[in-house]
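User: Assemble these into one structure.

Assistant: Restating your components, then the assembled model:
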Amino acid sequence: MSYQLETAAHPESLRRVAIDPVSRVEGHGKVTLLLDEQNKVHQVRLHIVEFRGFEKFIQGRPYWEVPVMVQRLCGICPVSHHLAAAKALDQVVGARQLTPAAEKLRRLMHYGQMLQSHALHFFHLCSPDLLFGFDSEVTRRNIVGVAQEHPEIAKRGVLLRKFGQEVIRVTSGKRVHGTGAVPGGVNKALTVAERDELLRDIYQIIAWSRDAVHLIQKVHMQDPGLYNSFGIFRSNFMSLVGHNGDLDFYHGSLRARDDNGKAIFDGVDYCQYERYIEEEVKPWSYMKFPYFRALGKEHGWYKVGPLARVQNCDQIPTPFAERERKEFVDYAGGSPLHAPLAYHWTRMIEMLHAAETIKDLLHDDDLLADNLLVEGERAFEGVGVIEAPRGTLFHHYRVDENDLVTMANLIVSTTNNNQAMNEAIRHVARRYLHGREITEGLLNHIEVAIRAFDPCLSCATHALGRMPLEVELIDAAGQRLHALARG
Amino acid sequence: MSQTFTLDGLSIPFTDGETIIQAATRAGVFIPHLCYHPEFKPHGSCKLCTVKVNGRHTASCTLRAAAGMVVENNTEELNAERRALTQMLFVEGNHFCPSCEKSGHCQLQATAYHLGMMSPHYDHFFPDRPVDASHPEVLLDFNRCILCSLCVRASRDVDGKNVFALSGRGIRTQLIVNAKSGRLADTDFTVDDKAAQICPVGVILKKRRGFAVPIGERPYDRAPLSETALAETAAAGEEGV
């Protein structure tokens, strides 16, 4: 758990190599490497260079607008933001317990999103690396190349994602950026025709999801030396867990473990998140660095997302996915697997679980009910936490007596993985780039490590007014004359 | 009703005192408009309903029909001018449809779709207009005001309260609330007032009801602007001016 390679001792004498932009991820980021004359690596940083500002401009807006507005943070996982905000604002309108119909419809929307987002990431963004090799011919290393050489795999990727998008459409009104969840419940139930159309395809979707788990399992096991060590670092990990320790993407309590799998905290009410998690800002990135308060900045950082969730839960409450989880845990050998490339395997287990859960929900007649909204005693603060495709997502709002938002704090899934991604690329840089001539294929190794986390960089940079900033005045000889710093 | 004028080649009957837009609407011909409402006296300010009468531009909501008039309405030239006016309205305020609860039942948005507006075209003004959330039941979001004055007319002519007014001149014209504090909470405005029902955009909003109607069931999801406007006029019947 070190910060080695974060800051070079003498950057002025080093050569700078940039991967800008990092490709096949959501949003805009870049990696900078500082190398000496022998190509030895002295500094590696993942920078998030785009800037959003949602936490600021949501202030002064009416609270019922928030779930629809904040989902515009992202075009891939808007449902996560939509639902996390709605969950926070349920507390504001006093909806302590949603109607069964409303909760199940929200779950259906969320699991549809989990399916489409995981399919998009695995098939469209990562399968070129995994099927062709990290330093394969660059012109072929994309989804078009996959479609040419593995048309069946590419087709399934497209159709799995399409199905997930359809689930989102029937529950929220649109495939992207709908309006289904409102504070206190949802605004629409499913019609019989909508349910039956989804039921027609769901068994095929489950079958393809099982095949996807077996595909990545096979790829992983074909080269365990690479897949178990590439970009590896040890860290704490955290996720929500549901009732009885079930894997649950929609609701639960917070559980964190250390790198050996020992509990750091468990059963934590997520409304108390501020007592457990702190965020640090660093001057070279728009993305914050969260850590567990109890362990401090140096030792308290952690990872989230599929690799954390599948190893943090006690079981998965659907049979096929649970069987795959057990296989994964057996493979890991009784202690947590920290290999970043194992994210892919666990991501596909989660996609299978999402498909099975959608099937179960579609057989529940509550989805057709018309009792969709509740309200109770008005409150002025709410916290909503959800497991988004990329990990734990926190939304926290305060609302005044006139119904306007006065404070918003978002800790986005990718932000939770900030230090983890930096550690992974530093490991890759040390292992593959150190002292070697830099090639495109070697630089792609860095990107492969980042992609494993499925980062959403546009989601993760939203803290207007709090970004760290450094301004330096340097004379013609390179001497620093004056500097100002904030953050 | 033996008198007629022609509108895009159609013969439109009218009665004495009827405006062009009234006669056209009754005959089932839609003329785009924003500040016109069949229940209120015309205001003639938005200029969306501009037509050409005997070759000259004029607002169809204010000009009385006359026998033998030759009126152009649905032409490429006039629709391009209406589109430009709509674009100006979009950039003068802060109209962010993606997160606006009026989306799908906003007449400005529907007009933009009707006219095939693909972008705002002009530079945004991004005015700084704070909302007035002081009233317990109604929110005023001035960011979206298009100065149609329908709330002014409704509050004055129907509610008898004079809660709203347009203040200032030219580009500085703004909607104000008739209270010493300038706050809606300090007026006798109620959620049942006609003025609370009339806003064609997203300024006067009943609180805590946003997004209650799902996508697909909002007024302009169900029927296009032209049909909705004609049905609205039919419902208003002969009670209009």
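The longest helix of chain A spans residues 100-132.
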